[in-house]
Amino acid sequence: PKGHFQYVSRCSITGVLLGPPNYHRYTQILSDHHAARLPDMPFERFKAKLETLRDEESINAWIESMKKRTRYTFKEDVEGDRPCFFSASEARSFLLNHCRKRIVRTAKTVRFPGTGIRDLPVGDIRRSIETVLEKQRRFPLDTANGLRGRLRRHKFHIYKKGSHGVTYVCAVRRKFRRPDQVFAESVWNLIQFLERNPMIQASRLPEAFLGLKPDTAQNNGDEEAGSESAPESAPAVSPEDPSIKRLLLDLRWLVTEGYVAEYADGRLFAQPAQSSEPVPASKTDSAPSEAPSDGESPAGESAPEPAAATEETPSGDSAVQPEASPESESETPPETPSREPGTD
């Protein structure tokens, strides 16, 4: 730069020398520095933080830094010449005016990872996304509906339970017993016990149901075992005891068939019987008529262990109501969203 400069401006945040105000490119230098280094700060606040340096050393340092410039050259000829630009803003403006269709693709919807929001430039698009994101954090209805659609496509079953309308997701479809359905005696006794003691911990069954206290059974602090809790002098037995094996096999069969729901915290809930009129059926049902042998489930299946997981409704209430009536536990569809539930 040629001329006499009495002082130069410096950014107090980045420490970069920007030049004197009487330099012909001073305004452009300020704009480029603000857009490249401090895009989130208002421009007027950025200008208010500029420092004025009058020492000769700073002025000579700025003059030395201005001896090199960055030049942008278009790679193709335009009317027999290749345009050159000395600022990124000028180059960007040229590309948008002459090569928009080659560098910008228009789409109605765009999908990108959530972490990509931080990489978006500050503008209307980013502000709109952040506004919608903040709204979903307060009331995640659209997010919940999107999750429901994805879970259904992956063959998960979704149902509501309890007076608070908590949504549960499970790999096993719930199954309700018919009034005339016949089970093996050990299975039927376990169903009746779970109906009298809803939401009991699975780890407490050997103690509460059989009156035993296996070495591996741990009391998880569930004090709601009901009137059939084990006596204080319950004998401690090995987990290899046949009665415990039978209990575990019967429970696993009920869970994999859907007659009993096993929640993520280990609590158990027996699905209520159907309230409709009994349907004539033979006594040979999917439930075992005889107690199966040790080592296999009553149905002879080795289905994966299901575990129901809760998904909080927009109200944020994740409490489970064991006292809910059978009507409140029927499989009901989710709320009708503003768009198709399967959309992401």
Report on the architecture of this protein.
The two termini are 56 Å apart. Strands 2-1-3 form a 3-stranded antiparallel sheet, with helices on both faces. Strands 6-7-11 form a 3-stranded antiparallel sheet, covered by helices on one side. Helix content is 30%, strand content 11%. With 344 residues, it is of the alpha+beta class. The protein is elongated. Residues 216-234, 281-307 and 309-344 have low confidence and may be disordered. The longest helix is centred in the C-terminal third of the chain and has 16 residues, at 242-257. The protein has helices at 26-37, 43-48, 56-65, 88-98, 100-103, 124-138, 141-153, 185-196, 205-208, 242-257, and strands at 8-11, 17-19, 50-53, 72-73, 84-85, 157-161, 166-170, 200-201, 260-262, 267-270, 309-311.
Offer a few descriptive terms.
30% helix, alpha+beta, 344 residues, three-stranded antiparallel sheet, elongated
Count all strands and give the number. 11
**Which term fits the overall shape?**
elongated
> Order of strands across the biggest sheet?
2-1-3
First-to-last CA distance? 56 Å
Which bin fits the share of residues in helices? 25-40%
Order of helices and strands: EEHHEHEEHHHHEEHEHHEEE
Number of helices: 10
Low-confidence stretches: 216-234, 281-307, 309-344
| Share of residues in strands | 5-15%
Mind summarizing the main beta sheet? Answer: 3 strands, antiparallel
Arithmetic mean pLDDT: 76
Radius of gyration: 35 Å
Class inferred from helices and paired strands: alpha+beta
